Amino acid sequence: MIAKEKAAKPKTWKDTLWSITKLLLKIAVTSALLYYVFSKIEIGKVKGLIAQSNPWWMIAALLCFFTSTIVSASRLLSYFKSIHLRLDIRFNLRLYLLGMFYNLCLPGGIGGDGYKIYLLNQRYNLPAKKVFWAILFDRLSGFWAIGFITMALILFVPQIHIHIAIPLSVFLGGTAIYYLVMRRFFKEYTHYFFEAHLKALGVQSLQVLTILLILLGLHFNGKFAPYLLSFLMSSLAAVFPFTLGGLGAREYIFTWLSGIFHMNASLAIFVSLSFYVVSAIVSLIGVYYVFNESKLQEGLPPIVIEEDTEEEAKSNLS
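The structure corresponding to this sequence follows.
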């Protein structure tokens, strides 16, 4: 049953002041990081890379990232199913794109998540705590997939002097602990555990392919692995609070790793900025629903939340 919409709590002047402060801090941190990054590279070389780039490969990269977004929205849907929230796939994708736009504009990449929690709590009377955990585990599955692909790429980066058995053991051990903790304390969210993590692996693979397509668009014919590994590591930095959707944080990591992995610093920065532009273009699709909120659920049937079975209700109480 769908609950009646609740009136939104009006913002106080303190809330408004804090929002402005966060925005200014976000701009300041992002600017400082970008200043540092561009002080380490030659702008002329970056301009040269822009001039020589193949637009068709860049369009392919854009389509690849958009595909990863669709898979990512489907991954989140798996966690929503775990809490008996059967969202229409079209509504879920629209909500996901709107969340991406908020993540791009609001500090720390959590603005979209906060909006999803608010909307599902207000509109469908679903406990905010349940939605929060579903979104958190969705994020954690993404980190797991990053770890999986990182472990594979280590084999192709000679600068990392470590036997593959060590990261493999750490990854497998960490995965086992991660799963057992979820089964013990958050069993409800493990109903689609393997499905969600397979999708997470698909999302990260498509994003790595996006970087590969950008490199091909720049006629790069060197070793791809260091750039792909740097991208995965920079993805973790992108969740750093008070940046414009990770802008600056990614480039800082690329700059730092370019010396360690012997990468072309200008190329590394350009690749990172290109990925940001690609992700921003896709994220901007969500702005349509900011100004046309009624379109978010247009033409969709009522969304039904399934009731817990008697057995599940007992397990939740125990």
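The chain has 13 helices and no strands.
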